[in-house]
């Protein structure tokens, strides 16, 4: 299955889905003009990958410093898809990176852990780089 | 995924529910199933909505806080850009801008004054003492130059007062009042003596340029310097009445810094 790489733009994150390594990363800021249009193909690729490789452990690294409300809605869908796959028996690790002092992103991670309990959630505070 | 919509999954669920509702031969089990799907979606939607609301409330609070901070900083910046850091009165650029704006609409009298022998204060007591004199002098003018009049520091020891709505005689009287106030003011140690100023006044009709108004007041100021300092001179045109010649208080027989 083809990997999915979407370069970061000023208002969309980098998407680096290395399906061959079972390693998916989202990194940057997310406030696209049309969040559904941006995340649609991402979700489609993810669903396709999950359907094809049911037994491999998967690692997801998320390092988003800002996301708007419509992106949040799409991210809920994305984590929902991952959570469902984990409920179906797959081992999925979610590494949640945020700046040490960013309480908003930290708390969002805590809520994800609460809402998507099948995911193996790990919080990673990162020291701010000037 | 062609028809990209934030509520794709909710729309699909709704469509399914409507379809079941529209059937008139569905079984109880089918209705229960459809209701079950709706319940799951509804719960998910509630959970997501409450998360989103919390986040947007938090973001709104933060935005409001930052907006307030931005307004405060903009006001500070505006103040710093228009005020002299040492004395707190308008700076050169601000007094020129204000003078130009006022002159466009109305007659404005302008006083330009300068501390006599200021260099000697700096030379004798150091620049901190000179700075103190500048601050003290501005402070003692506080009650003299009132609201609606504008005082600015245009150079090292040179000041300008804009007097919109003042007649020439009124402006010259105020200049004399300023002169007397400063002469009477006891400046603290290390200066420890009185300091005097020389003043020039011009009265300018609406539509005058600031440069012309300032130039005429400045010429009068230099006449005051040449005539012995610690006095008011008014620009020739338009005439300034009884204050044109000299100040009513002649310089003291032993004026400060009289040795220059």
TrEMBL record, chain A:
It holds the Pfam family SiaC. InterPro entries: SiaC (IPR018530). Residues 6-125 form the SiaC family regulatory phosphoprotein domain. This is DUF1987 domain-containing protein. It comes from Pseudothauera nasutitermitis.
UniProtKB/TrEMBL annotation, chain B:
InterPro entries: Diguanylate_Cyclase, GGDEF_dom, Nucleotide_cyclase, Rev_trsase/Diguanyl_cyclase. It catalyses: 2 GTP = 3',3'-c-di-GMP + 2 diphosphate. It is an enzyme of class 2 (transferase). Its EC number is 2.7.7.65. GO terms for biological process: cell adhesion involved in single-species biofilm formation; negative regulation of bacterial-type flagellum-dependent cell motility. One of its GO terms (molecular function) is diguanylate cyclase activity. One of its GO terms (cellular component) is plasma membrane. Residues 236-260 are annotated as: Disordered. Residues 106-237 form the GGDEF domain. Residues 248-260 have a biased composition (Pro residues). It holds the Pfam family GGDEF. NCBIfam families: GGDEF. This is diguanylate cyclase. It comes from Pseudothauera nasutitermitis.
